[in-house]
């Protein structure tokens, strides 16, 4: 199964690891195929540069060792595949749809209520419970 994770999940997993995040990343990378979009990786690096400068080397090291497929998010994704409150979330989910991802894991409540056939949008706890 192809699983994409949102920036907030990646930040939590890399910078604030705990049992749930460690288990989530382990399960995704050993039992499924982790997909990261270029948009999420760029957003992660921007947040770390801005808020956690002392963690840049750690993030570089972890990203270089984490098994994942990197997919490109277009600079100008086609509009109106779906409606979402926060326009910054559009490219993330757009990438998941274009890359035929099965599951999108996020802690962002702005994705709640989107009636998409695919990908399934689920929280980290929901993913661990279901998969």
Can you characterise this structure?
The chain is an alpha/beta fold and about 130 residues long. The protein has one domain: Rossmann fold. It is about 45% helix and about 15% strand. The protein is built from six helices and five strands, in the order E-H-H-E-H-H-E-H-E-E-H. The protein has a five-stranded parallel sheet. Helix 2 packs across helix 6. The longest helix has 14 residues, at about 40-50. The protein is globular, with a radius of gyration of 14 Å. The termini are close together. The model has no long low-confidence stretch (mean pLDDT about 90).
Strand content: 5-15%
Q: What number is the mean pLDDT?
A: 90
Shape field: globular
Strand order of the largest sheet: 3-2-1-4-5
Number of domains: 1
Q: Tell me about the biggest sheet?
A: 5 strands, parallel
Rg for CA atoms: 14 Å
Approximately how much helix is present in the residues? 40-55%
Could you list the spans in which at least 5 consecutive residues all have pLDDT below 50?
Answer: none
Number of helical regions? 6
CATH fold description: Rossmann fold
Q: What is the ordering of alpha helices and beta strands? A: EHHEHHEHEEH
CATH class: Alpha Beta
Task: Assign the structural class, choosing from mainly alpha, mainly beta, alpha/beta, alpha+beta, or little secondary structure.
Answer: alpha/beta
If classified by CATH, what would the architecture be? 3-Layer(aba) Sandwich
CATH superfamily: 5'-nuclease
What distance lies between the first and last C-alpha atoms, to the nearest angstrom? Answer: 10 Å
- Please tally the β strands and state the result: 5
